[in-house]
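DUF1242-domain-containing protein
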Amino acid sequence: MSALFNFESLLLVMLLMICTCTYVRAVAPRLIDSNKEGFLGILFMSARIGERLSPYVALACVAMAARILLS
């Protein structure tokens, strides 16, 4: 089943995108900061969410990992 039709998979993809964009922005900020508008602006917004809400993103990642391991 596609990740678009399964809510749990959609959340997992979103969490992975947020974590990846935050990491890439920490390592190479020019890649993310150069695209603040348009379709690639989603990457900038994801990195911003990961930076500002990092404790909540970390808790969501741990909860998702536990959910996957226990199912």
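thats it. The mean pLDDT is 88. The chain has four helices and no strands. bye
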